[in-house]
Design goal:
CATH architecture of the largest domain: 3-Layer(aba) Sandwich
Distance between the termini: 29 Å
Oligomer: single chain
Bound molecules: adenosine-5'-triphosphate, magnesium ion
Number of strands: 12
Structural class: alpha/beta
Order of helices and strands: EEEHEEHEHHHHHEHEHEEHHEE
Strand order of the largest sheet: 6-7-8-3-9-10-12-11
CATH topology of the largest domain: Rossmann fold
CATH class of the largest domain: Alpha Beta
Radius of gyration: 21 Å
CATH superfamily of the largest domain: P-loop containing nucleotide triphosphate hydrolases
Shape: globular
Amino acid sequence: MSSLLAVDNLEIGYRDTDGVDVTLLRGISLSVARGEIIALVGESGCGKSVTAKAILGVLPDNLKAHRGTIRYEDRNLLELDEAAYQAMRGRAFTLVPQHPLSSLNPVFTVGEQFFDLIAFQGRTHVGIIDYWRPRLSASRRRAIRTRTIDALREVSLPSPEELVDRYPLQLSGGQSQRVLIAMALVGDPQIVIADEPGTALDVTIEAQINDLLLERVQARQTSMIYITHDLGIASQLADRVYVMYAGRVVEEGPTATVFATPRHPYTAGLLRAVPKVTDEPFEGIPGTLPDPKAIGQGCAFRWRCPFAINACAESVPPLSDVGDGRRAACVRATELELVA
Ligand SMILES: Nc1ncnc2c1ncn2[C@@H]1O[C@H](COP(=O)(O)OP(=O)(O)OP(=O)(O)O)[C@@H](O)[C@H]1O
Ligand SMILES: [Mg+2]
């Protein structure tokens, strides 16, 4: 399958207040084909959201891409200027954010927020003159309102005719996330990037949100990059999974294969750490992610890895083919018998 989006060897970092260069993403490569769903999984702080922000072109000012490419169709997004990027957001790729309650503007109604999206999406520049009433006829305004109500109905929100005039603070968390999904889909994007869209919600609402996202993207043949630390959700949704650790992909491949027979000790550790509803003792991965400044040479997982050997401190293991369409970045990947 040819890829719609391909990130290749992406390095992102910043200069700290002492003038030291710190690398956060240390050579990320991933790809997503048309209609494909991939999951990015890994512990908090491993670089999932920084990867998403890099693709969307919304990195915080202090973070810079030092190396690599992000190819969408035939363009390297890292070379686009802001106006060209702005014209692609919402159409080429779009975001369903991590925190629904803080992602809607509290001073505008749902309808007003959709209005800007529908009226101006794809434009490189919007000025005050664009809001001048005579430029937007009453019939155009009515058409936008109808399209908004249809978009809200598509994400199964009750009474969309009434909801369109509500302010975000009058919505529940689950309703806010549905509104954000509707906003993300209204421009008919090619790729939806969903950054932990359910983590702020309770489990039943989270499951409904995931079902809805899956149904909507499958119905439109849209690709999706689904970011989560929940391996159960990743295994239900994604065709392929990328397991990230400390700013690198340490294992990737078809989700079912990777989760059934992991090849990287970190993936195996994550799988064992999934809480079970039995009286089995809870098994986490000891230790925490290393400080990006302290990784140095070698595998970043070596301090927490029960299988580490001297070679692990010598160089960063490349992501190598380990069979069954999978790749893993571990010098012992093909030799270890890992228990998930
Ligand atoms: N603007 C920034 N300046 C410096 N460091 C940053 C900046 N943004 C993120 N980081 C660091 O980059 C690393 C990755 O952060 P990121 O937000 O991508 O994690 P994540 O995998 O999305 O975690 P979570 O699951 O908690 O959302 C963290 O160490 C974080 O502290
Ligand atoms: Mg995040």
